[in-house]
């Protein structure tokens, strides 16, 4: 064999050795990754359980926060409602104290109408109307009850029962002894009525 052929064989062998070496390296790298992959899932499993535990803790804290926030919102809403109610009915004691005076004014007006003194009636009527309008502006409202209206135990206070003057008034209101008043939506004095039987 000639030197040329020997050289070609040597070159061929050299290339073959380089290819085998590169293949061995690649196989070693893949095997090394496989070994690392075998270890990695264990680490991932530990990390996932740790991560899951942390996520559960975060979720619990979120739930606590949301519940606390909802309770606080309910508290704010309730106190706002109570404050509004308080403002509406803050003067309830004063209004309740004024009701007998208003009743006396009504009785005085009825007596003045009977007396026929027009000048006195006009003066007292002006004061009476001014008092009623002032109390109305502060939220006081008279509960309108008329003869012949249906009796409602939640709105009316029956003080007595008399024989009905007519069949239409049986179980109905015959007379209003004392008017009732509301302050806002709250009844501060129920109308006292006489019912027919």
Can you lay out the helices and strands and say which pair or pack?
Elements lengths: L2 H87 L2 H24 L2 H20 L2 E4 L13 E6 L10 E6 L1 E4 L2 E4 L2 E5 L1
Parallel strand pairs: 2-6
Antiparallel strand pairs: 1-4, 3-6, 4-5
Helix pairs in contact: 2-3
GO molecular function: adenyl-nucleotide exchange factor activity; protein homodimerization activity; protein-folding chaperone binding; unfolded protein binding
Protein name: Protein GrpE
GO biological process, one term: protein folding
Description:
The protein is an alpha+beta fold and 197 residues long. It folds into three domains: 1-90; 91-138, no CATH class; 140-197, Nucleotide Exchange Factor Grpe, Chain A, domain 2. The protein contains three helices and six strands, in the order αααββββββ. A hairpin with a 2-residue loop joins strand 4 and strand 5. Helix 2 (92-115) packs antiparallel against helix 3 (118-137). The relative contact order is 0.08.
């Amino acid at each position: 064999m000639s030197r040329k052929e020997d050289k070609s064989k040597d070159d061929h062998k050299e290339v073959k050795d380089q290819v085998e070496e590169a293949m061995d390296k690649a196989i070693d790298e893949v095997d090394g990754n496989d070994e690392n992959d075998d270890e990695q899932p264990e680490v991932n499993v530990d990390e996932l359980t740790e991560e899951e535990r942390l996520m559960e803790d975060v979720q619990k804290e979120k739930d606590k926060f949301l519940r606390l926030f909802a309770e606080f919102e309910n508290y704010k809403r309730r106190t706002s409602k109570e404050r509004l109610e308080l403002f509406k009915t803050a003067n309830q004691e004063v209004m309740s104290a004024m009701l007998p005076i208003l009743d006396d004014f009504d009785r005085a007006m009825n007596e003045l109408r009977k007396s026929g003194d027009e000048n006195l009636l006009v003066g007292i009527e002006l004061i009476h109307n001014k008092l009623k309008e002032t109390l109305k502006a502060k939220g006081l409202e008279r509960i309108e009850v008329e003869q012949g209206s249906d009796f409602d135990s939640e709105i009316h206070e029956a003080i007595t029962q008399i024989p009905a003057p007519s069949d239409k008034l049986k179980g109905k209101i015959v007379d209003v002894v004392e008017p009732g008043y509301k302050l806002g939506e709250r009844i501060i004095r129920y109308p006292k009525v006489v019912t027919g039987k």
